[in-house]
Amino acid sequence: MKRWGLPLFGLLAACASVPTAPPVPQRPPNIVLFVVDDLGWQDISVPLWSERTAFNDRYRTPNLERLAREGMSFTQAYASAPVCTPTRTAILTGQAPARSHITYWTLRKDDDTSAKFPGLLPPKWDVNGLQPEDATLPELLQEAGYRTVHVGKAHFGAVGTPGADPRNLGFDVNVAGHGAGGPGSFLGLENFSAAARKGDRVWDVPGLERWHGKDVFLEEALAAEAVEQLDAAVAAGTPFFLHFAPYSVHAPITANPRYAANYAHLDPREAAYATMIETCDAALGTLLARLDSHGIADETLVIFTSDNGGLSAHGRGGEAHTHNAPLRSGKGSCYEGGIRVPLVVRGPGVVRGTRNDWQVISADLFPTLLAAAGVGLPRDGIERDGLDLTGLLRGGWLEAERILVWHQPHFWGVNGPGIWPFSALRVRDWKLIYRHADREFEFYSLAEDPGESFDLAATATPIVLELAKVLGERLRAMGAQMSIDATTGLPVPWPDKVERPTSFGFYQF
Ligand code: CA
Q: Which domains does the chain have, with CATH numbers?
């Protein structure tokens, strides 16, 4: 693609790896998809930046380090959205939120969770989330003979709708998943219920009654439940798809006393957060050990990732908006801290011990995992946005330049950098952000400025206009719903259809 008249660069940068991948087995691989909630790009001890960071030293994820040694780590993996539901549903459907209209997080039936933003209203988005009529990854794998198991946080569809229960979305088994996106409590001693903090009982984690009253952290119980499911699938002799989704490290940030001594030097809130990360990593270790003991590690694809950037606007110790440094801001934001996430993949056909700098996104997991299972994309006439990453995982490269798009016509409700209704695009190292409220652009060059500190929009007008056109075309092609102007009741203009005054009078681009 040469539409910007500039030479391509970096196209082969990702392929300088030694091709030592485990062979692809004759039968379809098992799949363990491990999706941590709100885990930031720097919330792990595996370095994903050009240099090791203080956060890499702070957090302890030895099992993820093992996974990285035995698999491929992506340094520029993105969540499909800066908040939970739209990313989770993008993984399950391969559709970007702009296309599915599931652009924000869901909770109760017909309830819009969007916070109020001055001058804007959200569009009529799909407030109930994923529903049984949607073709999903587990459903397609189920039809192909997989045993499909969900353990942990679901948050695919709203409470009071069929989509709240993962069993209505293609999972044979659901352990502890429902319509709410956070737990009442992380403690078995509190029955995983919000009752102890006098919170809304909608957050109570369902289906873990056998652990009530016990000294167990939520992810410890989930790991034990997952092991049982894994054993049962192995005993049945069928390939399995285990979607393991910790409720950690989402609020309410809660210390796991078993790991507290490792973080005694930190601010108490940050220490508690670090213990949640280590608890998730221990759950990963439990699952990896079980794959080893069954002798099926080489025939199981393991994917570790997160659904959005790390929480940083509130509820954390230390200075707000700094917890994903060197990236800017965090969960809810259009900046990199809100959308860049860890992604590590290990298994058949995946080159061992490599780092991959290609830009990939959550929705890619849909076609990638279907391809791994030998299942074709559904022929239902529905367009999908994810890209099959099989070639990358085998040490190859993408043939075409990628254009990634984010679209969140909602306000997350907490003030902070980039936390506003927006559309955004990334291509090469360029990032364009379109702010719905004032119809203005921001433009960054991430190679030189990963922290998005130097807005080049005013000085790079020709490329900003060209990228705005690409963003507008993409959004229209996806049928995206723009924010609504509260004054006129009309949608905010597409990024390439903004009328603005200049020294030459009004023009439109
Ligand atoms: Ca989340």
A: 30-393 (3.40.720.10), 421-508 (3.30.1120.10)
